[in-house]
Amino acid sequence: MEFNLKEGITSTMEMHVTDNNTAKKLGSGNLDVFATPAMIALMENTSKNSVDLHLPTGYTTVGIEINIKHIKASSVGAKIRCEASLKEVKGKKLVFYVEAWDESGKIGEGSHTRYIVNSEDFMKKIQ
């Protein structure tokens, strides 16, 4: 199946840092700051959302690689904005450039790779 995805597709998502997405709560650290796993989840979700509407019914994407730098801490209450941009399309392989900011500047950046899969077939293979 051919997919009509073009490089340059972007998506933006926003969220606030809460007690539930701190390093201390998620177990990735001991401090009440925005957790790296929470930032990565936001980056993956933003990437996924950027292409969801362009896929045929029954198809989705799955994340297979992430290379991220978390370059600045954000406190509870901070507003986080993430942008994903589709940089490369190779058949079913999609490579995104992702960035995240809080009110005082960039907090993270990197790349994220996803693959297009048929949801039903994918789930059958893992059962």
TrEMBL record:
Binding site for substrate: 63, 114
Binding site for CoA: 63
Domain (Fluoroacetyl-CoA-specific thioesterase-like) ranges: 17-120
Family matches, as InterPro entries: FlK, FlK-like_dom, HotDog_dom_sf
Catalytic site: 36, 44, 70
Matches recorded under Pfam families: FlK
Name the UniProt record assigns to this protein: Fluoroacetyl-CoA-specific thioesterase-like domain-containing protein
